[in-house]
Write a structure and sequence with these properties.
Length: 181
């Protein structure tokens, strides 16, 4: 009869290494499946809805528009209840208005940059500027619509500009916040 040979330490370590490799391979396969699911979701988001010249309007743009409008409406509502825009527009000097605008743009830029950091690394800072301009235009439009709906449009253009800048502070805060979701 043959004796069963007791595996030596090296053989045992090799078996352990093989088992560990098998476990790692299974984990890698699971990770690949999850990555493929994420890529499939991204493809759905990247679906082109329509084209205008070279610009492709994608699902992600529509989602960004909806988020921006919803956030701006919320910001306008909160801003109107907290701020007395007409009174502030009459009291504040133009340098105050310019400072508010710089503050809005600066804080919003930083928030967008923080959230879009991976896209910035791929495409540069223009991603942040595009989104910032897009959200600020939405905020101004929503603020103007709110002024019109509530019959609060100022009589002169200078006061209107001041009211829009002051009101865009809250509208932009809401729009940027919603776009980060």
């Amino acid at each position: 009869m043959s004796k069963k040979r007791k595996p030596n330490r090296v053989e045992q370590e090799l078996r352990d290494i093989r088992k560990t490799e098998e476990k790692l391979l299974k984990k890698e396969q699971l990770i690949e499946k999850k990555e493929n699911k994420i890529l499939a979701e991204e493809e759905k988001i990247e679906k082109v809805l329509f084209r205008i010249g070279r610009f492709e309007f994608k699902s992600k743009h529509l989602l960004e528009l909806i988020k921006g409008v919803a956030g701006a409406f919320l910001g306008v509502g909160i801003g109107r209840s907290i701020l007395n825009l007409d009174s502030l527009a009459q009291k504040l000097q133009w340098w105050n208005i310019a400072s508010i605008l710089i503050f809005i743009v600066g804080i919003s830029w930083l928030l967008i940059y923080k959230n879009e950091k991976q896209y910035v690394q791929k495409h540069g800072l223009r991603v942040v500027w595009k989104k910032l301009v897009f959200l600020y235009v939405i905020s101004l439009i929503i603020e103007f619509i709110a002024l019109w709906l509530f019959a609060s449009l100022p009589a002169d253009a200078a006061t209107l500009i001041k009211v829009l800048v002051i009101g865009s502070y809250a509208a932009m805060a809401g729009a940027v916040s919603f776009s980060l979701i």
